[in-house]
Task: structure prediction
Amino acid sequence: MELPEIRPEDRTPLVEALLGIIRQVVDRVTQLEEDNQLLRDEIARLKGLKPRPDIKPSILEATQPKTPKQEGSKRPGSAKRPKTAELHIHHEVELHPEGLPVGATFRGFEAYVVQELVIENKNTRYLRARYGLPEGGSVLAPLPPGVLPIAGGHFGANLIAYILDQYHQAQVTEPLLLEQLWEYGIDISSGQVHHILTENKEIFHQEKGEILAAGLMESSYIGTDDTGARHRGKNGYCTAIGNDLFAYFESTDTKSRLNFLHVLQGSQRDYAINEATLAYWKRQKLAAELVAKLTQGPQEFVSEQAWQTRLTELAIITERHVLIATEGALIGGLVARGVSPELIVLSDGAPQFVIFVHAGCWIHAERPLAKLVPHNDEHRNAIEKIRTEIWELYKDLKAYRQQPDEAQRPVIEARFDALVEQRTSYPSINGVLKEMRDHRADLLRVLERPEVPLHNNAMESDIREFVKRRKISGGTRNDAGRRCRDTFASLKKTCRKLGIRFWDYLQDRIRGLGQIPRLADLIRKKARQTIAPNSQAVPA
Result:
């Protein structure tokens, strides 16, 4: 609502009072409209309907305005390319026209490539000859190499790979997958499908563990996030860990810093007391007398039972003391394995992820401002001003990350300090700025470690796999199913990041060919080629 312009001589005390009342009424109406929409959304949710979507792009990732398309120019990525130049041609057929007139001369062929997918039911009966031996006993002819998967059975490797690919990549549910196989003429039961999906997968579980170990040791930073993952009808959590080299997923019943450290450790628990352990205990203010006890005697423990026995021997039984001591020992165990104590952990700021050297996500830091509801124009302008300043600083940090310049560090730090020290008439804005001020080191981590991203969007994208699966299937019903879901999600995402087709990977591992190297070896190779040269910290 825009009021007509009022001349200064007409602004009597009565007019000013009426204008104030109008502003209050407008603010009140705006607030009531927002409350009304919230109630409408809640009613829709209770009725099982979808509420109005509220999709707001982040100002931090805003792009420059699009320029008008010039005549004759093409949109990015639309350049012509030979689409079939890299295709493997499986079958080549020569075609000649019929009814040629006398005297027609051959001038060569014009290639026309057709891509096709062959899906057929193929059953083979092998008649295995058995020969009796003169000295007794008999010999049975072996099956040809590659016919059966390494786990054996009466289903071929191609069929098993297809079932795993459809379930874990296409996210086809077991009932629909069973119907699909019946349509193709495969004689298989629901129990056999479930067995193929969950049993005899140790080779895959082992490779998943290798991925985590290689990823942690070869990376200068990791991103992490978690989401809900129901199991046996109860709420649980799935933790995602990874970066451009790998992705690792692990579902557990709880989420905490202790749980996160257990996930980082994998299946083997290693406890060690070293400099990283002592630094953590110091940050957590563990009592000096307890530190003195723990640093006397054995310093390494290879199982949880051995560590708990040690705590009991030292009479450390207080819940808080046990928790801090255990978390520090787990961090020390990771460092003893070869994980760098300078490893950056990039997260949304959840307390359980604040270990080693922590980096904060700018998207999550700015997001509360986008959710604020202004009470008047002054609040609205203040929100817009602060968000604009954050966006401008963020763009400069992105430029710094691409081309680090030590001379720019104090300038950017001063701008950050000036930004977060501001005070506005809206207390909620001040609260967001205080939160950013408290996490200054985490948000400015890129100044000393330019290889670290400014946001955690990559891990949020990776973990969306579980959000979609949760919407489709609800949750897992047994431990084997949950473990396989985590394992194949980890392998699939890692294959994608390493440039390997998941289908080729399944075929190679199920047939036992060994033509595709271990994913952990590929992670190490790619790390040395890409991340290692760029992981040097900027001098302070």
User: Anything to note?
Assistant: The first strand starts at residue 130 and ends at 132. The radius of gyration is 31 Å. Residues 63-68, 535-540 have pLDDT under 50 and may be disordered. Residues 345 and 354 are 7 Å apart (CA to CA).
